[in-house]
Design a protein that fits this description.
This protein is mostly helical. The protein is built from eight helices and no strands. It has one domain.
């Protein structure tokens, strides 16, 4: 807290842009009516269809394999995030050496030790947030596995239990959404590292990440592929 008075107006402006981009895009893509056509919500419809097809199958080995592949991806990111957090904590412990290195950068360094620590803390907080999202996503994928294992058998002359299918798809959506939030935290964590170079880099990179996320979620070939023929 004692470093806050040393922040310049450009630092506060860049921080405001950073949090506005992160929080604003999360709300826009997940909760606003304009996010209905995005990659996140479009994928949710396919998860419901997957759940219905799963219930109609007598043998569900393929479904278990797919869930295992999803869990492997989340576990990889969770494990990688731990190493990143450890490296950032080590950087906080060696802030004096890091300060001498950044002082030689063409952007003028990061100021004093207090400013360097608060800038590193922003990067650290971003990746800690990502770690919590990845681990919670992993637990929810475990719940999805339980729901698939407990899924009732569907006989040929009976309709698919749509209520249970929505429950399975809902667990899949929750896990997938938290995984997306963890990935988003990675992007903004990288943007936060720009603050180490110059305050204006923080806001600039945050806007750049916002553009990249929007293009991938609302203008990407992957989205067009999912929506083709719908």
């Amino acid at each position: 807290m004692h470093a806050f008075p040393h922040l310049a107006p450009v630092d506060w402006l860049s921080l405001a842009i950073f949090f506005a981009c992160w929080g604003g895009y999360a709300w826009y893509s997940e909760h606003s009516r304009w996010g209905d056509g995005g990659l996140v919500r479009t994928s949710q419809g396919f998860r419901l269809e997957w759940a219905r097809r799963m219930l109609a199958r007598e043998i569900r080995v393929a479904d278990s394999t797919l869930i295992g592949n999803l869990m492997t991806s989340v576990s990889f990111y969770a494990n990688t995030t731990i190493y990143i957090i450890a490296a950032l904590v080590a950087a906080l412990g060696a802030s004096d050496k890091l300060l001498s290195v950044t002082a030689e950068l063409p952007f003028g360094g990061v100021g004093n030790r207090e400013l360097l620590e608060i800038k590193l803390m922003l990067v650290l907080a971003s990746f800690v947030f990502a770690y919590f999202k990845f681990t919670w996503s992993l637990r929810q994928f475990n719940l999805l596995s339980i729901l698939v294992g407990a899924a009732p058998e569907c006989k040929a002359d009976e309709p698919v239990n749509d209520s249970y299918a929505r429950k399975v798809a809902g667990a899949n959506n929750l896990a997938g959404d938290d995984f997306n939030r963890g990935i988003r935290a990675y992007y903004f964590g990288l943007a936060a590292s720009g603050w180490l170079l110059h305050p204006a880099m923080l806001g600039t990179l945050a806007i750049g990440v916002l553009i990249v996320l929007f293009r991938r979620d609302f203008r990407s070939p992957a989205l067009h592929l999912l929506r083709d023929g719908k």
